Amino acid sequence: MNRIPLVNGMPRPGLWPKVSAKIESFFVRYRDLLVWVHSVMFVVFITFIFLPLALPEASENATALNNFTRFANFAMWGLWFPLVFLSVIFTGRSWCGLLCPMGAASEWANNKGLQRAIPKWLSWQGTPIVSFLVITILGQTVGVRDHPEAIAEIFGGTMLAAIVMGYIYGKKKRAWCRHACPIGLLLGVYSRLGIVQFMPKRLKPGGDRQTEKTLCPTMIDIQRKQESRHCIECFRCVQPRARGGLFVRLRRPGEEIEQISKHNANAYEVLFLLLGAGVALGGFLWLVLPQYQEFRQTLGVWFITNGWYWVGDVGPSWLMSVHPQRREVFYWLDFIAIVSFMISVMVLMTATLTSTSAVSAWVAGKLGGQRNFKQRWVELGYQYAPVAMVSLIIGLGGSLFVPIEQVSQILASGIKIGLFLASIIWSVWLGWRILMEQGLMGWKIYLPLLPSTLGSLLMAAAWWPSIS
Ligand code: SF4
Ligand code: SF4
Fold first, then answer.
1. Interatomic CA distance for residues 236 and 245, integer angstroms
2. Which ligand approaches the C-alpha of residue 234 most closely?
3. CA–CA dist 337, 22 (Å, integer)
4. pLDDT at residue 187 above 60?
5. Is 225 exposed, middle or buried (0-12, 13-18, 19+ CB in 10 A)?
6. Which pTM value belongs to this model?
7. Residue nearest to atom 7 of ligand 2 (CA)
């Protein structure tokens, strides 16, 4: 008989209930085997990060097909980063809960470690933003997309930080994953666009809350859970036969953001959306814009005129790219120029998009939109998520397109244009739905939608050099 799956005696909510019931029972059944998956992933991770350091220098003609160093680099930037990032749309933060060796190592260290109370500086909401920005900017100055030493430093350093932080802080929890991991924040914010949601069978009122009195490794008060951001999909709270806990619900992409007022909207997340897209843009533009070279030249002349000759010295290799064997050596001038260029682009982009969504929020208020200005502004800021996501994929995961560019430059550009067009349309749609949730109807939506649509267009237009 073709029965509809039930949750607590009621038809299972959401899209494709039979599919979500099957996913749930599969992962609950094999949950205990995850430790083996994590162990294998740990070995793979260490091999990809550190083995290239022990191998001879790759020749200039080497490719991912005949050289392990090139293969590891492509696997990292051309496959892992963009695909894990895209996967949040289809599977939420499954990477974190099911596969990530860093989070698993951090939790393992925590079980053996000091289990001290999580300090305030760590649980501050800006910590993962700072962590993301530092890693992204450092990644650019050390050349993480090109040099195996830089990959080992960035990813090995992040793994070490995850283990040390896990060893010291939290009690049977993943303090690193919730509060500090730069990748976790990225996946968490964008998982709000995704189709997978873990929902309480019996939702307690009061909204999302962090608590250490929970079996959840990322400290979600599971009975009050409404937002997807911190859920790493470890399935520990899912017991299909129990009356409590969570169940898997499938939903339309973007549904959580359309109704963001009911899912713990958060100003830090919006700030991260804008800063993250801005810093990725800066990290891309300094490589391609002639204006960056002019900026560097002007900066260099100013330093020399003022007697700061040390800017012509080579800096330390842990801070900047120093690879004479590959004909790339950065001076302090390069370091300062890259960092200040990236930060300037980030600030400019964030200020522009903050202003466009602020105008939208103000106009929405004038036309009768509900809630106060700040709440409307925060909610409307989430509409940039699709266009910011595509920016990050093209900016930080651009290697994905390299094999396509080798076949046809037109095809690669066409795919990028398609991605940007789709993301702009999705962002506008989200803006429309958020304004509806704020109580506006009909023509009253058009006016406040215009400034934020302009913001999405500006963000996409800023990426034009990556397409043309
Ligand atoms: S939050 Fe970071 S360390 Fe934790 S599981 Fe996710 S990617 Fe891995
Ligand atoms: S809410 Fe449940 S599935 Fe999500 S991280 Fe916590 S315990 Fe794991």
1. 9
2. 2
3. 53
4. yes
5. buried
6. 0.93
7. 216
